Automatic annotation (TrEMBL), chain A:
Protein name (Swiss-Prot/TrEMBL): Ribosomal RNA-processing protein 43
Domain Exoribonuclease phosphorolytic: residue ranges: 52-186, 233-295
Protein's cellular compartments: Cytoplasm; Nucleus, Nucleolus
Principal place of residence: cytoplasm
The keyword Coiled coil is assigned to this record: no
Family the UniProt entry places it in: Belongs to the RNase PH family.
GO biological process: rRNA processing
InterPro entries linked: ExoRNase_PH_dom1, ExoRNase_PH_dom2, ExoRNase_PH_dom2_sf, Exosome_comp_Rrp42_subfam, PNPase/RNase_PH_dom_sf, Ribosomal_Su5_D2-typ_SF
SUPFAM superfamilies reported for this sequence: Ribonuclease PH domain 2-like, Ribosomal protein S5 domain 2-like
CC annotations in GO: cytoplasm; exosome (RNase complex); nucleolus
Gene Ontology MF: a single term: RNA binding
TrEMBL record, chain B:
Family listed: Belongs to the RNase PH family.
Pfam families xrefs: RNase_PH, RNase_PH_C
Residue ranges the record marks as coiled coil: none
Annotated organism of origin: Riccia fluitans
Keywords noted in UniProt: Cytoplasm, Exosome
Subcellular location: Cytoplasm; Nucleus, Nucleolus
A single GO cellular-component term on record: exosome (RNase complex)
Record-annotated Exoribonuclease phosphorolytic domain positions: 30-170, 203-267
InterPro entries linked to this entry: ExoRNase_PH_dom1, ExoRNase_PH_dom2, ExoRNase_PH_dom2_sf, Exosome_comp_Rrp42_subfam, PNPase/RNase_PH_dom_sf, Ribosomal_Su5_D2-typ_SF
Name this protein carries in UniProt: Ribosomal RNA-processing protein 42
From TrEMBL, chain C:
SUPFAM superfamilies: Ribonuclease PH domain 2-like (SSF55666), Ribosomal protein S5 domain 2-like (SSF54211)
UniProt key word Nucleotide-binding: no
GO cellular component terms, A-Z: cytoplasm; exosome (RNase complex); nucleus
The organism's taxonomic lineage, starting at the top: Eukaryota, Viridiplantae, Streptophyta, Embryophyta, Marchantiophyta
Name of this protein: Uncharacterized protein
Natural source organism: Riccia fluitans
Compartmental location: Cytoplasm; Nucleus
Family recorded in the similarity comment: Belongs to the RNase PH family.
Database matches in InterPro entries: ExoRNase_PH_dom1, ExoRNase_PH_dom2, ExoRNase_PH_dom2_sf, PNPase/RNase_PH_dom_sf, Ribosomal_Su5_D2-typ_SF, RNase_PH
Positions of the Exoribonuclease phosphorolytic domain: 25-151, 155-216
Length: 317, 310, 254
């Protein structure tokens, strides 16, 4: 209602704006503040409309996990960690492991989250993340199998939002993919009864390693630790439609006042994984959707090279 | 705690404490008279009820056979929890008592359970072991606050100490299964005369010193507690060792004041323990099934003889 | 058995497994401004214990709460599920709840509640990685975050814990040391005023040992506080983002 009132008296706003300090204008008329920028084809933080914020990926930040990643997308920060545990695969999929995804927004991340009940956004993003990871070919669950029907890994992927400043799904998906890239499956020994035990790195040094084939002679055989072979990494881009403008990677401030959101997920330039448009005021035309996809294509290339760089830096360390 | 104290009442409380004569005629370092009943709950292995002025609490000990805690095969288990009855005070209704219950439980756990290695616990945990690595006693100590007029923590610690002294463990006969592979096979003695007592001499008592204005007092009433700036609860055992320390109230305390409070609490605990031992004479195993009441009318005298701090 | 644990935690030359002397604290890293959307925030690292604290407010109190003349301080502590080697172990609600209460008690004496009447200041903490001394790390970090948010405080609060293993007093213990301790002390101090805001002690301590432990802790807090004091200043002047503080090492006691 406040927005309606404000836009109804547009001329008043203009008058006030000329005599008001920028910070006060920004707080009192957030929509007009952003629209003024958009009209000159620039964003409040100086970006062109279609560009995402600078992105950092750091792998292997949390030693208590089997794989972890810290992702910064502008101010939005995500910490993802994967922990592996042994489990018995289900009867329907005897040669597959499992992945359990949990996206959390602890109260530290945003003024809108209060302790006690989980944030609405968190539930929605958790759901979207699960769908995207299940439908993309990033992780083939057969890689988490140890012995068919008897033992497999269950990967607990926990993503924590440390700083919520818009485009949470983009950052969360990137953090999840990066954590999976960093994931190291530990060496295990399988004895004759099929009992699987994790071999710690110290034991590995003590005992000479035996190949799986030669292992038949000894009591238990070893399955050497490895990292996962991942498929193409899906990349999400949150786009904001507002009047005639199309913005990529909005901040929390922009998300709060602008009209419609549309999320595109691609894993290669011509493969669409997911397209998500939850209602909103602006009806997206086909051509706008195509524009969004085009932006995501550019972003895809950018993100893939960021990930590559992160892996290299991590290996060098 | 106490709602609606007038300005005059506040001045009266603070002024009385400063003049070393409190509202009920006590000096700063005098306890209220108290009354201990033991064996108040027939189903429990041990129980005690203490009325300390208007504060009324019950502690019970329930012993169960259990498996030793992981990593410590020759230890038994000790668990403590406290509940505040909604009838004890209007603010305990609904969820109001939850936070206080947790505070009290944690303070008692801190004082009774010792370090993570099990050293310094109120009851020698090794004495609760029956078959190493397989069978042990688990003691569940529960406190219930029936009525609250200040100094709940001290009252609970005294009640728990009395309940532990009152506690009898049935005799367990090991029939077989002592080798490492087998499950132990045992028989619980049905004879009510056959039980063992716990060694409770090292169970600490807690003395809370409440700071009002510049002075600190023992055994504060609810009204006095409402005027406190800080309170320190010190658990002390027979050896004079400090077994637990908990601070309440937001105001900061100087380190030297804290150390002074610890030494004062130690002196008070000695008197309390003597009074308890006196009460203990009447709850010897022979008169086990008869509830014992002992009114410590002599307590003030004991205080005068044993612990006049000034 | 006592001998065994001592052997496991102390090497033959009297140093600890991470080469520290018993009275040394772990290298600490402190930085304000970790969470941009918050009114104030801080990140603290003590060895491999890592915590983030953000402060929101002063803002409207929850509607359900009764009217209060003075401000409220609302504290909440959470653990990530991968904070401990065993998944989800630290995330048990009871532990979190207790930490929240203890954090509140350690801070309330230092914060001037009269400076924000009728409103609430929220202090939220997330333990990213837990390796012993979690609560003192949270308390120290939270007082920095409050300073960063411009909340009026009487003083900075610094906290440190200490484990007693056998005859040894180990300052700022790691998780491994904490699991074998016979007793522990945690002290939170307003460092300039030298006043203890929160103290807890467990296990059996002789009076002399208890006072030695308390003094050791307050000395360490003092030194920690001196370093913490520099951090907000650094941020106000905007000299770089990072400030690393290696705590000065207290002399070894016999």
């Amino acid at each position: 209602m406040a927005v309606e009132e404000a836009s109804g008296s547009a001329s008043v706003v203009k008058d006030v704006a000329s005599s008001m300090e920028v910070e006060a204008f920004r707080r009192l008329f957030p929509l007009q503040y952003i629209e003024r920028y958009l009209d000159s084809a620039v964003r409040p933080d100086g970006r062109p409309l279609g560009r995402a914020r600078p992105t950092d990926v750091v792998l292997g930040q949390v030693p208590t996990t089997d794989g972890s990643a810290l992702v910064r997308l502008g101010n939005t920060t995500m910490l993802a960690g994967v922990k592996l545990e042994l489990c018995v695969p289900s009867a329907e999929t005897p040669d597959q492991g499992r992945i359990a995804i949990d996206f959390q927004m602890p109260p530290i991340c945003s003024p809108h989250v209060r302790p006690g009940r989980p944030a609405e956004d968190a539930c929605a993003i958790n759901e979207q993340l699960s769908i995207v990871l299940a439908s993309s070919q990033l992780l083939d669950l057969r890689q988490l199998s140890i012995t068919s029907g008897k033992s497999a890994w269950v990967a607990y992927l926990d993503i924590y939002c440390l700083n919520a400043d818009g485009s949470l799904l983009d950052a969360a998906l990137l953090a999840s993919a990066a954590a999976l890239m960093d994931l190291q499956i530990p060496t295990v020994s399988i004895n004759n009864d099929g009992k699987v035990q994790i071999v710690s790195s110290r034991e590995k040094q003590d005992q000479p390693m035996v190949d799986a084939e030669e292992g038949q002679e000894t009591k238990s055989k070893f399955v050497e630790g490895r990292s996962l072979k991942l498929g193409p990494v899906p990349v999400a881009l949150t786009c904001m439609l507002h009047k005639k403008h199309l913005l990529a990677d909005p901040t929390a401030e922009e998300e709060a006042v602008l009209q419609t959101v549309l999320v595109v997920v691609l894993d290669s330039p011509d493969k669409l994984i997911s397209l998500y448009k939850p209602g909103g005021q602006v009806v997206a035309t086909t051509s706008t959707v195509m524009d969004c996809i085009a932006l995501t294509r550019l972003r895809l290339k950018e993100v893939h090279s960021i990930l590559e760089e992160a892996t290299q830096t991590h290996e060098e360390d | 705690m106490v709602v609606g104290l007038s300005a005059a009442e506040k001045v009266y409380i603070a002024g009385g404490i400063a003049a070393d004569i409190r509202g009920d005629g006590r000096g700063r370092h005098q306890f209220r008279e108290f009354n201990i009943d033991t064996s108040v709950i027939p189903q429990a292995n041990g129980s005690a009820r203490i009325c300390l002025g208007g504060t009324d609490v019950i502690a019970s000990v329930k012993a169960e056979l259990s498996v030793p805690p992981p990593g410590r095969p020759n230890h038994g288990k000790l668990e403590i929890s406290v509940e505040c009855s909604p009838t004890a005070a209007p603010e305990f209704e609904g969820r109001g008592g939850e936070e206080l219950s947790m505070d009290l439980s944690r303070a008692l756990q801190r004082s009774f359970l010792g370090g993570t290695s099990g050293a310094g616990a109120a009851i020698d945990l090794a004495a609760l072991s029956i078959v190493e690595g397989k069978l042990c006693w688990a003691l569940y100590i529960d406190g219930l606050v029936l009525s609250s007029d200040g100094n709940l923590l001290d009252a609970l610690s005294i009640a728990m100490k009395a309940a532990l002294s009152n506690c009898g463990l049935p005799k367990v006969e090991i029939i077989g299964g002592t080798s490492p592979e087998e499950e132990p096979d045992y028989e619980l003695s049905g004879n009510p005369e056959e039980f063992t007592r716990l060694e409770t001499s090292l169970v600490p008592v807690i003395v809370t010193l409440t700071k009002v204005g510049k002075h600190y007092i023992v055994d504060a009433t609810a009204e006095e507690e409402s005027q406190m700036t800080a309170a320190v609860s010190v658990a002390v055992n027979k050896k004079g060792s400090v077994c637990g320390l908990t601070k309440r109230g937001g105001t900061g305390l100087d380190t030297s004041v804290l150390l002074d409070m610890i030494s004062v609490a130690k002196r008070h605990s000695a008197v309390l323990r003597r009074a308890l031992a006196f009460a203990g004479l009447f709850s010897s195993p022979n008169v086990e099934k008869r509830p014992v009441s002992f009114c410590l009318l002599l307590f003030r005298r004991l205080d005068a003889n044993g612990c006049r701090t000034k | 058995m006592v001998l065994e644990t001592q052997k496991a935690l102390l090497k033959s030359d009297g140093t600890r497994l991470d080469d520290r002397l018993p009275t040394y604290v772990r290298p600490a890293f402190l930085k304000t401004g970790a969470v941009k959307v918050a009114a104030g925030s801080a990140y603290a690292e003590f060895g491999s214990t890592k915590v983030i604290v953000s402060v929101y407010g002063p803002r409207e109190s929850k509607k359900a709460q009764a009217f209060s003349d003075i401000g409220r301080l609302n504290c909440d502590v959470k653990f990530t599920s991968f904070a401990t080697p065993l998944r989800g172990k630290a995330g048990q609600d009871i532990g979190d709840k207790e930490f929240s209460v203890l954090l509140h008690k350690a801070l309330e004496g230092a914060v001037d509640l009269h400076s924000f009447p009728k409103t609430t200041v929220d202090v939220f903490a997330l333990v990213l990685q837990s390796d012993g001394g979690d609560l003192p790390a949270i308390i120290t970090c939270a007082s920095m975050a409050l300073a960063d948010a411009g909340i009026v405080m009487r003083d900075i609060v610094a906290a440190i814990s200490l484990s007693c293993v056998g005859k040894n007093l180990l300052l700022d213990p790691t998780y491994k040391e904490e699991t074998q301790e016979d007793g522990s002390v945690m002290v939170a101090i307003m460092t300039s005023r030298r006043e203890i805001t929160q103290v807890t002690l467990t296990g059996e301590w002789s009076s002399t040992k208890a006072s030695e432990a308390l003094e050791l802790c307050s000395d360490a807090c003092q030194k920690l506080g001196e370093s913490v004091f520099l951090v907000p200043k650094v941020c106000i002047e905007e000299i770089g983002n990072f400030a690393i503080f290696q705590l000065p090492r207290p002399p070894l006691r016999n």
